[in-house]
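User: Can you predict the 3D structure for this chain?
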Amino acid sequence: MKNILFLVRSVPPFYSNRKDIDDIIFSLIAKGNHVDIYDTKRKLHISVNDKIETDYNFWMKWLFVGKAYLGLNFFVLIYFCLKNQGKYDFVQINYCREEFQLIPQLIKGLGKKLYIFFYGSDLNDRSFVKNNFKKLFYISDKLIATNRSIYKILDKYLEKKRIDDKKTVIFLPQEHFKLYEPLNFSDKVSFKKQLGIPENKIVIMVGNNGTENEQHEKMIDQLQNLKNLENYFFIIPFSNRLDTSGERLKKVTSLAKIKLGERNYKLIPDFVSHEEIAALRMSSDIFLHLRKIDMMAASMFESNMAYCQIITGDWLPYQYYLEKVKVEVISEFHQINLCIEKILSDEKLIEKLNHNRQVVLKDYHYSVIEDWMKLYE
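Assistant: Here is the predicted structure, written as structure tokens:
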């Protein structure tokens, strides 16, 4: 049995902040390991095996005013590290917080091996600390990312020769991908009926959530000019747990109503289950994925498995993905409508959709969980 620590946010309903990370954790436990989580922000230590939570906070609650919590949390983190030095066989950081970079030796000292897993925000959100305190990366044992494009960016901030032998590319396990396995192209009609969408409508999914990063306004501005707009139906997933005011939801809803037509779209403001999003993707013919920034979204793979053609932007770092799949890539938003017309007239479309589905089932299947298990052997 190995003792493993994940330094990661813990956000209900998950133990960690994401289901795919939970899947890794529970697979490790199933193989006889002991897994703990430490959430720096909540100052909470969780023994996942025993379902025991320990609050490490020793400060009075009234001290947490404004930005003071950052300094207070930092001292609690130092206390946690000092108390647990040498306790673990493996320590894995999921999202490298600035605090970790300030105390590299204490973080490394928690265990025999240190792994750092990179999200896109690790690279896109820069700061003085992130740009100048780099020792933690150099003393780590593995730097893990879901695609090689992340390392192209990482090489700009770190000395390439000092991290080359640490680089590991491995996709996160997506158990819900299994939902798509039994589906066929012909099933798309029944999913449209299930959602009350006429069979003869061309269904376009616009974005993936309600954040500004999705750029709904730019997409809707173009879509309103589609020829025979009445032949289209637009699905707009808009879940955004960060937008407590709902102002952005009101703005995009109003925009869609005016420019797309009140009966031509379905905006989904709430969080949906994997089963529900699978039905939406199977109902869709085209997926517009034109975020400002991104590393690699699971929504792309879901759309591939749902026989849904994708339009994405050449500014996104998908080079290695695009080497294998056959999707449409544009450089400007004004190209959206011409690209949609191109897709609809493509005589080889079904052939491409089947090819993309097979690529994803082969390279990004849930079975990558076994590759994760090997990292801790």
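Residues 68-83 form the longest helix (16 residues). The chain has a mean pLDDT of 91.
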